[in-house]
Amino acid sequence: MSPRCKKIACIGAGYVGGPTMAMVALKCPDIEVVVVDINEVRIKAWNSEELPIYEPGLDDVVKAARGRNLFFSSDVKRHVGEADIVFVSVNTPTKTRGVGAGKAADLAYWEGAARMIASVSKTSKIVVEKSTVPVKTAEAIEKVLRRNCSDPAVQFEILSNPEFLAEGTAIEDLERPDRVLIGGKETPSGRSAVEVLKSVYEHWVPAERILTANLWSAELSKLTANAFLAQRISSINSISALCEATGADVGQVAHSIGTDSRIGGKFLNASVGFGGSCFQKDILNLVYICETLGLKQVADYWASVVSINDYQKQRFVERVIEAMFNTISGKKITVLGFAFKKDTGDTRETPALDVCQGLLQDNARLYIYDPKVTENQIHADLATPKFEWDHPGSRTPSRKQDSIKVLQDPYEAAQDSHALCVLTEWDEFKKYDYERIYDSMMKPAFVFDGRNILDHERLRKIGFIVYALGKPLDP
Ligand code: NAD
Question: In this structure, which of 172, 181, 201, 262 has its CB flanked by the most CB atoms within 10 Å?
Fold first, then answer.
């Protein structure tokens, strides 16, 4: 094992691999960092002026390091073969068929990457789990690595180094992380591998923020972190339903409980639901692991976080329909925001998709505007069968492309519309000229604020009928 790292390869140039390695390269000019991917289109984009993902501050980091010690390549085998440390940041989606379908993590990409690492390795390597994986994955990966490498002198040490960045704030999170977690085996070679990886992060992360743990704790910490974050969202969303039923205001409740230092104020915004590629998949994975270990009560507990999230999206759709006199058939509804959160163009598992599907199911016409999501992406997402509410088969995805228009201008999207639905918390939505929008809309004009970001009092003064999550209803 090389005591010092000279070259890093990262398999997977996605939302995690790209930004993470760009930061490593920026902060470690003495290390060559090559991000590799089998997706040549993505690699081409990483080498161009138009990066494949939108993330505030990412362009600057990539431009500062690219060509110096940061490279993007589709020559996967060569760079992996030459590396001292191989990060694996491939996708670990939910299995769609077979045993564990709908819950278990699909480790096919990971296994493929491990077989390839083993086959091209002529020197010993540290293999780092950057992807989010089920607890005990390192055990399986170790078997794949050892049994597919023909050179007995080549040693592999597996570390778990889960990534805690959040899309939309990835660069800030990577530059000043709350913590970096490194899990390794409690053996001399395991400890030495941990030290090598620590030495990389120590280029910019204060030593007290680099935590070490055993492999299984590190793997489980990532699933647990996402489960806790999603649980907070589902918890406050469940209270939002109670607020609407009683006249309490979820904003006031959140503020009151958030000032308790044991609870804290973050992640307490009621919303139309959480999305993104990770929360749901990681909780379902946790549920599956618990089930396979015979921990049914624990599995049921975490499964409720996902079912409350589905309930919140369903509730939102039903409220729109109910408020608009029980029919939205043929009515034009303006959807503001399609990304799963602000400051990203990512639509994976976005709640907007489920809400739009629900509205289309009741025959609405949707005019969609998002500052960063492309028209093609929105059409592709809405054409893909995906979501069923609690009753499978009760909602089928709409393929009525003529019911969906994607606009580049929010004012155009609102013209002649019956209602605005805010589904992503983009800052620009707060700054619109709502008098102008109101004047251009059908009356009564509704606002359904699925993120509680607009000034509801002001909107009411203009004339809108406003529905906000967890807030007293309009008289
Ligand atoms: P992604 O789909 O954007 O990127 C994964 C990339 O891996 C793809 O470009 C794919 O082509 C590539 N790939 C797959 N198999 C490969 C192989 N054998 N060789 C080379 N390339 C291969 O996924 P992502 O969002 O970057 O997530 C990656 C992992 O990180 C997942 O496990 C995810 O759960 C975890 N994670 C994601 C986030 C997030 O915010 N997106 C945050 C923390 C952790």
Answer: 181
